[in-house]
Fold each of these.
Amino acid sequence: MMNDLSFALYAIKKNIQASAELRTSFLTIVIGMMINNVAFILLWIFFIKAVGEIGGWTPADIVGLNGFAALTYGLAFSTFYGIRKMPDYAATGAFDRFMLSPKNLLVRVSTSAFSTSAVGDVLFGALCLTIFSFLIHANAIQLAILLVLAFAACLVFISTIIIIYSIGFLFTDGNNVSEGIFQLFFTPAMFDGGAYQGGMRLIFTFIIPSLVIGTLPVEAIKDTSFAKAALVVALSIIWFLLSVLIFNRSVKKYESSNFMTFGN
Amino acid sequence: MPKSIEISHLTKKFTFPVKNEQVGWVKNLFAPEKREVVAVSDISFSVAAGERVAFIGPNGAGKSTTIKMLTGILFPTSGTMNVLGFDPTKDRKKLAYQIGTVFGQRSQLLPNLPLTDSLEFFGVMYDLTNAQIKKRVAELTKLFSLGEFIDQPVRKLSLGQRMRAEVAASLIHKPKLILLDEPTIGLDVVAKKALRDLLLTINKEEKTTIFLTSHDVGDIESLCERTIIINRGTVIKDLPTADLAKSFAFEKYIDLIPTDKFASFVELPAGLRYLSKEPNKLTIAVDVNKLSTKEAIKTMLDLYDIEDIDVYNADMETVIRYIYERTAARPDNN
């Protein structure tokens, strides 16, 4: 276990080195992504100022929500971009090389690729969460909850994309199917949390965990709600265990192929 | 002698959906018909430790599927395998520490980083210490002459350099068995020879068992002491490579050079046929089951005014092509 985690950290380091080799595109993409995210968040703030608060959500909450969304997305797709490439790996037979590795298969494949643009999301997410903490005048307990839930939200995000992209092993056109389901998961996570009430809230918490990566953490922090924080942590563990189970089962469906590929 | 590979009655079937023109698109979409393809059918063989074996066959014969089952990438439909004492279906990770793999059409190196980083990456993956990695990289650099390009990003290497690097990377952990799937594909003659020499060296010096698939006759002749031929998923020949040509020496070839020029070409008796007809050279195939070489030469000397004669056996490529074509022509080769 520790051996696999140590290898994962090493693989991530190598991926960052490989991306940094292409310095100009690395910096351009990172900065470009941050500007893109700022534009998105400004749009939301102007929207709330125009229509008023939705379900008690303030512009500060929107900043926090975008912080969680960007951080979870960025961390998952920068360091574990290999997860998103699984359908491609499965379709082309490039997954073979991970099967030949003596390391844990999920660790090996998830750390096999790196998305430079997602680094911009990580930086932007961290910045947003810092601003959010200032805006709500977060105390020490709220900051501690923020740190724990940032970790838990990342775990939920990573677990969910493992499940979504494992579909690549089941369908020939797994890439398109996976991307469609990913949008179904991630797009609701970016909306004002106050809009989710009743049944919608239950669906997007327990069936599709969109609210677990941003909305619930923001609410848990601003209300100092240990119950909501515990729910997010519990769901993160459940989703993680489920994702490992589904990944291992899906891999058994892998049938390889002989497309020419150039690996990493 | 201990065995590196032992497989018994190994079969692999694939199923895939096929469109049925007789039914509507809804049925084709939600309940398509399935077709089954037998990629490998009930094959059995073993490979001794330290042996160099060519596993050859035409495209789609089942070579890659067999290698993928041996490495744990694919699960067999039935049959048993033992590779270096492990069952690849159950002990894939343990087996990975003991084997090296090279896929000629698929790189395992890190394209954007210098080759040193790829070698280090593989070393870390196989749990070598920094000191072990340093020592082994130095050994491989010397053995494979990687020094001139080891600091270059992999994507900037020539194909020949990359293949040498691929093989070197696959040997970082001193595997007992190396499986190579078309390792010389796309290489020029010089690079091919260099790679074959290197594989022979590691076989002799490190006692590494070599199991390779290739469409290149040179790989088989110069590298492998034994050849297993597979076609349509079934092993059709398993014999020493040196015996391959002998076993199928059903034809002899005669080159005839005329004293002046061949003006016309007469019809040949049974057992002889023209392979090429040029004014300055004739090539004749002799069916030795119908006519001895001596009789064939005598016949040709009677028919033409000859200055020089060259008699030779079928080359390996011809023999292999004959075997492939003969088995492909059979409706069922089981």
Amino acid sequence: MEKSQVEYVQRFTIFPRFLHFLVIISFLTLAVTGMALKFAAERWAEIVASFFGSFEVLGALHRFMAVVTFTYFALNFVLMYQNWRKSGKSMLQFVLHKDSMIPNLNDAKELMQTFKWFFGMGPQPEYGRWTYWEKFDFMAVFWGVAVIGSTGLALWFPEQFTLVIPGYWINIATIIHSDEALLASGFIFTIHFFNTHLRPEKFPMDPVIFTGTMPLDELMHERPREYAELVAAGKLEDIKVPPTPRWFFVVSHVFGFTALAIGLALVVSIIYSMIFLYVK
Amino acid sequence: MLKVTEKQDWLKFLLIILVVLFAGLAQNAAAMTDEDCLDCHTDPDLTVEIDGKTVQLIVDGEKYMGSVHADNSCVSCHEEADVDEAPHPYPMARVDCANCHDDIAEIFASSLHGQAIEKNDPYAPKCTDCHGKHDVLSMQDKNSPTYILNVPFTCGRCHQEGSPMTLTHDIPKKNILKNFSMSIHGEGLYRKGLTVTAVCTSCHTAHNVLPHIDPKSTISRLNVVKTCMKCHANIEEAHTKIVRGELWETEPHKVPACVECHGPHQARRVLYEDSLNDQFCLKCHGNPDLKLIMANGEEKSLFVNVEAFEHSIHKDKRIACAKCHVNVDHQKKPVCRDSGKVDCSICHAQVVDLYNKSTHGILTAKGDNNAPVCSDCHGTHGIMSKSNSESPIFARNIPELCASCHREGQKAALRYTGSQHDIIKHYQMSIHGRGLSQSGLMVSASCTNCHTAHSMLPASNPESSVHRNNIMKACAQCHLGIAEKFSSSIHSPAVSKTDKKLPVCNDCHTSHTISRHDTAGFRGLILDECGTCHEHETDTYFETYHGKVSMLSGGEKTAKCSDCHGSHDILPAYYSESNLNRRHVVETCKKCHPGSNRKFTGYLTHATHHDRDKYPYLYYTFWGMTGLLVGTFAFFGIHTLFWLPRSFRERFKRRREHSRENILKKDDWS
């Protein structure tokens, strides 16, 4: 009874949700298969390798998911192109717009206000459509794919790359690839998970990236500036949607929790290994 | 030479003086000449009555004049006849040959024949019975009864089967004359006219004939070899395969004497069966119930399984029972009583020598009951050649044979204190064991190929075939090509002059768990093996892709030490033959990376980012990345940490708001 009275608004269309689905699938696979190699000496790594059959399966999955990554990387540009065309703005306006994915001065201001709020020195900032940490996550993927992707290609095709670059650069590429991947997975499985799902207000998870919808109430509270702008522009009614069907809601949660569990298990394994790697 | 000639001259001179002196004396003192004697003793009417028989006293002057004593004159023997006027006194004492032949007479007196005379044996032969009386001829003379061709007849006069002497005396051997004439010696004498062949006196001597049980006898067991060797001087050479050169002289009790195989009077090339033949032994030992009750009351079967012996290699080689059971004695009843243990060294001297120096032999010498003796491995009467697939020492059966003591839990394994355990099980799973037992590959190594069959010693013993210094020789028996390669590698002492311990075959391949080099199990161990000495190289290998992957499932496929460095031909990169030398390294990488090129080989396969001096790029890259990580996590860590309490507060606040709204709504409805 209660649920039906809750009003929902659409936050993500199907395309970005699909892209995030690709990110989850590929990133988790890449992280699990890659970390098993990075921490090959660990027992859990051997368990992972045995589960998949052999290191060759790990390698094949890793390379396949690399292709998926390059695919969503490219599709993301398609999404942004679509958004740009929809916005009717010039390219520069679109990039510099306060709702663009590019961090700007307002994000710096909100970051400062957030810290003040942490210490009780001011109210919580009136976040808009994208908070600064969401923008950081987005940009981090951009940066990560570029760095990990390029070095990964060098490791994938060393024979071709070394026609141009010296052999020892492959060693350098290995370090960059693996440490950047450590940063990325470490970040996603702790900071991103906390910011988006695990912090008490959202706990245990925020299904919006799967369902695409969020309660209107949540929009009012968490993104008051966006809500105000939508009301002012009279667009609020446009984005109101019926609640997500129950089955999809369940599927989203099962999928989401699985991804969360895998990510957390992996990060625990990594932290454990890192401690013992340097302690021993 | 000169000296001898002088001496002979001197002797001749002395002889001449003596002859002249004696001649003078005889002329003066003895008036009786040979002519005087023959005057009477050629008269057929000169007779005497002895025991009622008329005996003529004639002497064949012609024969006497042809005899060796012709120059001595009658009276030199018949001293009492030396009277001035005939007739001489009668009866006279019997001629005593010892007057001149005193040395021979002395020997003869102690001989069997001499003793018989002493006992007044009517058949005892006197000098004259063999040599004749007035017609004594030199043994060189063909008419002499002592001439070699005539000796068997001379002796045969008494020893002929059925003669009064043989009928009244217990002579152990029968048909002596007949057997002799058919023997190789008799055949040589009669049919080939071979005057150097052996006749009765050659073995029994002419005057010192003694029974074979007399240790002084030339035909006693102890001396018979010496006797035979008077002619068969090189007989030990001819038997060298089975008798150590000196054994017959120094330990005659250990070996069968000549006559035990070559019957004394039936001497043929091979006539064992006619001597102490196997049938004789089997008369008793063929009985399955034959037992010996020992001092402690235990029963020991003395049954000899003829069927087993039929298949034995000793049967093939026609080895008679007595050849091994040498201490049989015809004097004993039964002949084999207390004949003791068989000593295989009688024939297999070299092998037993090796065995005595081995751990098995040393333990046996100490009286250790656990130690195996020849028969424990080879069997007893059923001994088979190692080429016989039924034999316990047939290559394929050897692991099982050794296992009977060396399998875990068995007596040899129980007392073993070294580090090699489950050797039999491991061996059977190894490439050698499976090759031998499963594939039936007969060139596959079994226990004895490495440990030797008879000289097995612990690996710690420098004499051992499996000692570090010798193991390569053991392996090279089959793996010669690899041994040759290895000899020119950096691990060979011929190349590396170093005090450090250089690896040998089993350091990498193990001793008993040897597997093919391309199996996952072996490839998985390569790093451990190389790592025992090359620790740093192994550690850094594990920091690179090859090393990390090698730790995961299926990781045996990635490059291991030997894939790049080579295995038996391993050499440092600065050798032009090395796989890693500039000339070859591109090819080496190409084995797995078909696109390998010069720059590609610049990949650091043993790189570590912990060494700033050696790999500065890697070092700074790593620390740069680490800085980025630490920075990012530090910032967001703090961000999260401070957010957490605020977030809790927000959640509670919103819950309160919700409940208030709900209350208000309820109020509205109410």
Amino acid sequence: MRFVFKTSYDADISLFKHRAQAVWYGLLLLLVLATPLYFVAIGDAYLLGEITGILILAIAGMGLMLLTGHTGLPSLGHATFMAFGCYLNINLLGAGVPWLIAFPLSGLIAGGLGTMIALPVLRLHGVYLALATLAMSMLTSDFVVIAEPWTGGIAGAAVPDINIFGMEINRYSTPYKFYYLVLFVAILIVWFYRNLLRTPTGRSFTAVRDSEISARAMGINLTRTKAMSFFLSATAAGLAGALFGHSAGYVTNETFDLVMSITLLLMIVIGGLGFIHGAFFGAIVVGIIPVAIANGRTFLSTTFDVNINVPGLESALFAFILICFILFEPMGLYGRWLKIRTYFELFPFYRKDMFKRQKSYLKTDRVQ
Amino acid sequence: MSLLEIDNVTLRFGGLVAVDNVSLRVNEGEVFALVGPNGAGKSTIFNLISRFYDPAEGRIRFDGKDLLKHTADQVPSFGIARTFQNIELFEQATVLQNLLVGRHRHRKTGMLSNIVFSPKAYREELRHREAVEEVIEFLNLQPYRDKMIGGLPYGVRKVVELGRALASEPKLLLLDEPASGLSVEETQDMAFWIEDIQTQMGISVMMVEHDMGLVSAVSGRVMALSDGKELATGTAAEVQSHPAVIEAYLGTGEISKTGTSRA
């Protein structure tokens, strides 16, 4: 078991709890930086594209995690903010704005639009807020059709390539550059997120999540805090949407549909609500399942000559996994990892109820 | 001059008069206790001061400023901190994080400098940690410093809530039943802390409490309430021997002919 002796206030503020942890995250960084080398060696970048897709999902997941996991506001409409980000990016690029400006700007405008939508619905709590955002999500594809001049409507719109000071980045022709670009954005957002959580703004978010009444009694303005969380959350989703557009190459009114919103929510629940890690774990699960199913199908048909063509197999599998998590591991994959780690750290003193929660997760659900 | 002035405040919930024309003064450096049977309106007065409720009539002034012109989340900025009858801590956070939220009114950095963790935000964090560390030291919370609230025993949570209120460096501390559910030893600790808060930190305390032992040990003045009305104000001994207070707690001794009795 490790005892961390804190000898300065910095020990509580620093990004890593102790040196070993910093070393592990350093190794992880090296690993993700070196990953493309493997694909260069085998000369096939298909799986790298999938990994890039996982990173993009994780960025969107972090956005939703901030809102749902850390501020306690469920949203079933985050694909809408991704759509905002994506189409804004396309239009800004189309208007000749350089990518380095168009990309962050499309995120920020998506955040602003998100806040404008959020302000009236923020008076709602729990399941009512979820329903309001669900309605927003359902309207998105219609809105994309109506706004045809900007979105291409049903026919769809092609997403221009990224151009950074003359360096062309395209998902297919330069997959390695695209991977590093997305990785950079993801790491930057993780850093912002971590900073937020160790400063007053992030603490006010978790305060609102855990007890609105005492957050107010501590001087936290509920509407402002929730709007701020919505803004940051929608900004991250918008950035993810813009990257998603570059990754897909072509977007239509069906790209950012309700299923995507629900998948995002599933993702963070499976990964572990309230942890940044949860967004990544969830994105990995969501990213791997379709690949695993496709590979499994090929394996079955080539080896055993068994062909499984069940429509909706993926959705059913997602639903099954989600139900299992809610029943057996409400803290998600990251929570399970924490429990395993604690078990070994404290061996043989681990108690079964160490992670037991006293109250329901979303306190906003309670009638006040 | 009085720190807190409540003048002729009335609050109605529909037909029920929860607080009926109550006036009181809390002076600087004093411990003022509200006692009374359940439903007397003690906690309601706290919620009025916290601006969770709007009074129908009357005024509430703090430090010469009209509190009724401000919203609930602005009240702490005047230097009023409170605890709750049913502990309202942030469950999914550690003791340290809970106390740091208490420092919210002292923050000087905004969202942007927080996100990039500017040097200013860093220095501010250090200051907050220092202030919180003093509270931890004062309340002997070191063993629980990094523990999640969800796993702490009731008595410790009570102390953490007091700590969170203290971390905001208030002028007036509102304690809603600080000793309820505490053991005899824990209640004694609480009494010592309240005394220290008053004498060493110079913070005025207003508390709602049923434990008359604690009330007589620490309070200067006591006000007894029943059915939202003031019964008596004075020292603990005076209030306890006041006929109206005895009647409110024990009844008149006459059997009511209509068969209804006062709660």
Amino acid sequence: MKTPPLLLAAALLFWGRETGMFGLGLALAAAVEASRLIAGRLELTRDNQNRIADLCSAVFALAAAYTYATADSADAARLMLLRAPLFFAPLLAAQAYGASGGIDAGAFFWTLRRPGARLVLIDVSFPYAGVCLLAAAGANTRSEAFYPSLFALTGWGLWHQRPRWAPAPAAAALLAAAGLLGHFGHRALTALQPAVEQKALDIAYGLAVGRKDVFQSRTAIGSIGELKRSGRILLRLRSPEGRRPPALLRNAAYDVYKGRDWLAGSSFTELPGRSAEGTWELAPPAAKARTLAMDALIPGGEGPLALPAGTFRIEGLPAETLKRSRLGAVVVQGGPGAAELALSLGPGPSPASEPSPADLAVPPPLTATLARTARELHLKKDRPVEAMAAVSRFFEDGFRYSLRQTPGPVGADPLEDFLTRTKAGHCEHFATAATLLLRSAGIPARYATGFAVLEFSSLENAWVVRQRHAHAWTQAYVGGAWTDLDATPGSWSDAESADAPAWQPAADLGSWLRERLRRALRADSVRRGAMWGLAAVGLYLLWRLRGGLGELRARAERGGGPERPGADSELYRVEAELGRRGLGRRPEETVPAWARRAAGAEPRAARLGELARLHERHRFDPVGLGPEERQALRDGAAEILAELERR
Amino acid sequence: MSPSRDVLTRIAANIETVMRGQAAATRKLMAALAGGGHVLLEDAPGTGKTTLAKALAKSVGASFKRLQFTPDLLPSDILGVSVFEQKDQTFRFHPGPVFTHILLADEINRASPRTQSALLEAMGEGQVSVDGATHALAEPFFVIATQNPVEQHGTYPLPEAQMDRFMMRFSPGYVSAEAEVAILTDQLSRHPLEAVKPCATVEDVLAARAQARAVRISEELKRYIVELVGRTRTADGVLLGASPRASLALMAASRALALFDGAGFVSPGHVQELAVPVVGHRLALDPQARFSGLTGASVLEALLKSVAAPA
């Protein structure tokens, strides 16, 4: 191996410490470094190496499939990165304990596995150390020790590989300079990141209805250009009675409109429930209840739940806590990334706090316009139902749904521009305008965000809710309860489905299959089956490998004993020593051919050719060597070994 | 070292004066000569196949015949014919060109299979049977056949049995640019072949053959040979692997090459060097594998890489 002694062990320990798999790291490090103490080497042929590489790939693929099915996709990629050193350890072991000192390129590329392909040996020790460092970085512990450790490990490897002609002080100075540059560079990057992140968040919030934050919803009102949202399926709804599920699923409600943001206070009450079983009581049970099955993705296991109005019980949510905000948003903490919920709903609205003065506030720049429009529509405080109908009709008749926004006059409030000039906007415009219109008529109103249930998938036999079905609407306080009012013109559902990309059906099928797999894996019996299946595949691959190893062991056994004269040749010690330096003899290589190659690459072994000739006579001439020549072989080997020891 | 080695080295040096830059081909030719086998040279026209054969013949002071194979060549043109003598009322055998020490069978694959197989007995057993009478051939009897690659027009591919009679098949191949310039320089006034003088006798060659049979070979290397040859029988794309005759030939050739190298024993390198020329042409390949570019040589090369060499 080309890496200096103990570098791989250090990299593996570093990886173990960073990822919290220290025991594994220690075991791997010991296994790898032990190869430097053990002189014996396995004669792995190309076929053996290919099988080992295939084993690694198969295990990696199976583990990736399993991880992807059971974890969030972003998480799955990270998890696979963290465990990468584990999956490729067999390849490293094949090199460390193999006689050839490398892995044939054919092990990595099927196209190079033709018969007669040229043998190209790849030393995997440095790439493996690189994988360890990458995986350690993936753990993202943000510890102060990370950068110095990383620098020490890479510096160690680079120092060892520096060109022999380079003067040591110059190399050291360059390394130190690179280290310092890296140090300040990564500090600067760390400082730059929050700024960039903030900017990116601004843009991202503009593109998707802020779903994560129940206290603040940044709208895209006033943004220019086209809104694009993904078709990823977030929720699946099944109604046992076959009835259509409620049209709106609410994430959160907001009462304060400031600038372009809707804000909500941050007081929470914890909801009673049995977290172990995952049953939570949101309100007293209603008399005429109906049930709804909902498969929900909860990114990171935290965040607001999108729930239909009237939900009083949630089952199947094993989470740490479930909290409800003052305005009625239900937030889960410490939950699973995906859950199959059973919801029980009553006919009435969800509980939320009584109206406060904030529910009547209208921002000053808009007061005049809103009051005029409210007057024109004859909105009256004491006839809220009629007012709601009037608002709804007003937007339905005179306005157009559009995800495309053109720039308005300089200095004009974008909402005012929407009401008076463009008369075209998306759900946030409509919801905000409707909320403020009702407020200016004296009717308490709130802004609500969540999802609209629009699409029935016959493939899944369920209602599916996609990311782009995110919606905003108005809640008005009518007759002592908060009632939903969706002021967005009905044409919006057509507009959004026209947005679907051409590959949507394929993506849906993939999503559905993944959901099925996830669901299947959740069942204990299936999970056990999958484990047994994995174990069986692993055993089969090992068995195939064993076939190759058995052959090789048999050969080694046959080669020993009286049938292998000259096995005591000291040249083998030189071979092992050079093997540790990446100049091992390949199994199919004859000793003189190897000697030529090694002597060419390692000037200190220049006399290897002479030694190889003596060795061959010792081994293959039935007459053997005379006592003097035998001594010459011994001395020659000792000389080269001493030469190699000297640096 | 031994006088026989000197003889071989001398012949090789003599050939090298004519065949510039063909040391590898000459080594193989020497191995075949001392190993008691026949050689098939296969290469494009103009690469020096005939020159190589003629240089060898001239270097050894032995009788030499050259036969140009053509589609209308008959077996009797090679072996000889019995003619009725009016005077004493008997048949008298007129020996054909095969009764010689060194026979150059030029463009052997241009003759019909019937004529090709007339050489079978001669090459395999060192004798010729004509009209029920068996006539022994001269000792040594060394055939150097040349052929153009079988894909060219007007050729009859040699049958497997005939192929198996050749100890080796190899291609001299093109030489380096410098060597080619040297060839041009050599032939400015006359062909260097004309200047080649015999440097060994028939007895020398026979002695070298006897010496080659005294070269030592370890059990391990015999197993290595058997494993290499045995693996051709199970290799992918091979219909019919190499026979034990191939193992025997590989051993004999390796011993002769060891003699040429001045070693008293065979080492794995000798076996590896000769595996392709000795075994490669004896494999019958699956037509589909052949179509996809597999050759006997490539099968052997792959085997050499997958079978661990004794070390």
